[in-house]
Write a structure and sequence with these properties.
alpha+beta, binds guanosine-5'-diphosphate, single chain, 27% helix
């Protein structure tokens, strides 16, 4: 089914995304469940005493002993609620209340019978100069030729390409900045990532970063080996380099699609697109066209003539011209909706990017939007959101502090830590930046937003405050005025003169605190029975799993005579020639350990996982 201007679908009844029973008193949801106190927000001493069935005086006395004076009707913050629960033998858990004003969090459940296939949404990433822009242009240009001859495109941040009667939606901002920026705002729009690697240059730092980003987002990767027309092209070398990163072509038993292309000479592009469609089929991408639209803002700007103009990517449902939408804290009526060829659309179904005008404010890329049946509903929700936003800003913790970092990481809120580095000279700024970027912490990425020489300025504090960043000063001291500003904006400034003290501090703050909540779980052990030397790979350990299972993705340690010789990760796990996800007790396997080769017969490989510890 296609949703374009000629197709009048606006008569279809669409279901609203907001369930009707949303006006619940949040405190009604507090409850004790199997020794766990589940709560949803602020709660007073007297309410908590009722919920936990302990005298309020006991709570007040307990807090008093800790040097905290509270009254009966005082609201307790999360920290105090936690302390009280633990003191009186309860575990605790905060649950978010989903209501219409935080519609991002409403879980949309579609009846499987209402789901229709939707086009894949693809982002192209890769190292600079490897040909991302050329690839985007080649795909787009061939598009213009085979659709509407001479159509003038408008850059709206995404476009659709039709091949074999099926559409693919491309996000056309290349590079992972856009992808990361979206993700840091909680927006995941991409179904498939194409990583472009130049055949004459091979895997480069940004290639690895792109792979990391795609993996972190759990998005499947297609590799496009580009510039195969060049004399220096060496496709095999690129494959080898990628295999070292565990990106294995299907021909070698892996799960990644590799395509060889020349973006410039238009070679292999159709094959690449066909592979995107094949993968999309496997992914079974579906959406329900018969609900009010919801999705993400890809781009937005103020147009002199037309006002706020935004590109919306419809991710579920159908957006109709004339619909009322809430975006961020703004709302408006979709006055006009166009595609990348400036053609006016009446409706846009799932996976369709559209440029719209009619919003009262310019939203921010990454904002979620939702369409509503009536203007009243949209207005009310936008107003509530605006109010909530103002309250949030008022209560906002501003920048980050190392102390609250852990909590946010733990709650899954933070996968990225923003840092600003200021140092006495550019050389040391770069060195600090490098050291921070080298820190490896479980699933957490460090972003250095700015690293420059010079004193900490008000702009640094402002940037830190808006981006939740921590400022690191190296060999410099901020003056009193800046300190006061930082304090007011709740921005943490950490000062150091030795780089490793600085990195140690960041690492300790994250890891040290992570430790108590994660526990090691040993999955199994294998004994190395034979060491096989392979010229390309190094030493392969021929093992027998002596107990439990050895899992491909788990962590491992190598033990010799009861002494831990090495701790790290498995690099590969095979049963005969085939990659194995796991190998069970009493089976033989071959394995290699990442970055470690010094293995001997009789060594024990122990597989373990870090599991979250239930309190
Ligand atoms: P980006 O930085 O990844 O967006 O790379 P560009 O698309 O700007 O390409 C960088 C350079 O490589 C440009 O000079 C392109 O013309 C060139 N280039 C891109 N694809 C190919 C290709 O398939 N073959 C050849 N020979 N050159 C290419």
């Amino acid at each position: 089914m296609s949703f374009n201007g000629k197709n009048k679908k606006s008569k279809t009844t669409r279901v609203s995304n907001i369930p009707s029973n949303r006006n619940i008193n949040k405190n009604e949801l507090n409850k004790v469940n199997g020794g766990v106190f589940v709560y949803t927000g602020d709660i007073t001493v007297s309410q908590l005493s009722k919920e936990l069935n302990i005298p309020a005086t006991s709570i007040i006395r307990f807090l008093f002993m800790q040097g905290k004076m509270v009254t009966l009707n005082q609201n307790l913050d999360d920290e105090l609620i936690g302390e009280i629960c633990l003191e009186f033998g309860y575990d605790f858990k905060k649950e978010k209340v989903v209501s219409e004003e935080n519609f991002e969090e409403i879980e949309i459940v579609d009846d499987p019978s209402s789901l229709k296939e939707r086009s894949p949404i693809v982002t192209i990433m890769g190292h600079v100069d490897h040909g991302k822009t050329t690839l985007i242009d080649t795909i787009r240009n061939s598009n213009i030729v085979d659709t509407e001859a001479g159509a003038i495109t408008q850059a709206i941040g995404a476009y659709q390409k039709e091949i074999n009667g099926k559409k693919i939606t491309f996000i056309d901002t290349p590079g992972h900045e856009a992808f990361t920026a979206m993700r840091s705002r909680g927006a995941s729009v991409t179904d498939i990532v194409i990583i472009v690697v130049a055949a004459d240059d091979g895997v480069m730092p940004q290639t690895k970063e792109a792979i990391d980003h795609a993996r972190a987002a759990n998005v499947p990767i297609i590799i496009a080996i580009n510039k195969i027309d060049k004399p220096g092209a060496n496709v095999e070398r690129v494959k080898q380099e990628l295999m070292e990163l565990d990106i294995i072509p299907e021909e070698y038993g892996g799960k990644n699609i590799f395509c060889e292309i020349s973006a410039k000479k238009n070679i292999g592009i159709d094959n690449l697109l066909e592979n995107v469609l094949l993968l999309a089929e496997v992914l079974e991408l579906k959406a329900n066209p018969n609900r009010y639209a919801l999705g993400t803002v890809l781009e937005a700007r103020l147009d002199k003539g037309e006002g706020a103009k935004a590109t919306l990517l419809v991710q579920n449902g159908t957006l109709n011209a004339g619909d009322f939408v809430v975006v961020g804290a703004a709302y408006g009526r979709v006055r006009k909706m166009t595609n990348e060829y400036r053609a006016e659309l009446k409706s846009a179904g799932p996976s369709t990017p559209v440029a719209i005008i009619g919003l009262t404010e310019v939203p921010v890329a990454g904002d979620k939007f939702m369409a509503f049946p009536t203007e009243k509903q949209a207005r009310e929700i936008a107003e509530k959101r605006k109010l909530a936003k103002t309250m949030d800003e008022r209560n906002s913790s501003g920048g980050g502090t190392l102390e609250d970092l852990y909590n946010r990481i733990h709650e899954g809120e933070v996968q990225e830590i923003n840092c600003i580095v200021k140092a006495d000279n550019q050389g040391s700024a770069e060195a600090v930046k490098g050291a921070l970027l080298n820190l490896q912490v479980d699933g957490v990425k460090i972003n250095v937003l700015r690293s420059t020489a010079g004193a900490i300025t008000e702009t640094d504090v402002l940037l830190a405050s808006t981006s939740n960043a921590i400022i690191f000063g190296f060999n410099i001291r901020p003056d009193a005025k800046i300190r006061a500003k930082a304090e007011e904006a709740k921005v943490d400034i950490r000062l150091h003169t030795i780089i490793y003290h600085l990195t140690e501090e960041v690492e300790a703050a994250m890891k040290g605190l992570l430790k108590p909540t994660y526990k090691e779980h040993i999955t199994g052990q294998a004994e190395i029975r034979k060491v096989i030397v392979a010229s390309k790979i190094g030493k392969i350990a021929g093992c027998m799993v002596t107990n439990g299972v050895i899992k491909r993705d788990s962590l491992c340690r190598l033990m010799r005579d009861g002494v831990v010789i090495y701790e790290g990760k498995l690099n590969s796990l095979k049963r005969f020639q085939n990659d194995a996800k796991e190998v069970a007790e009493n089976y033989e396997c071959g394995l290699t350990i990442e970055n470690f080769n010094d293995i001997k017969e009789g060594d024990i490989v122990e597989g373990y996982e870090m599991v979250e510890e239930k309190k």
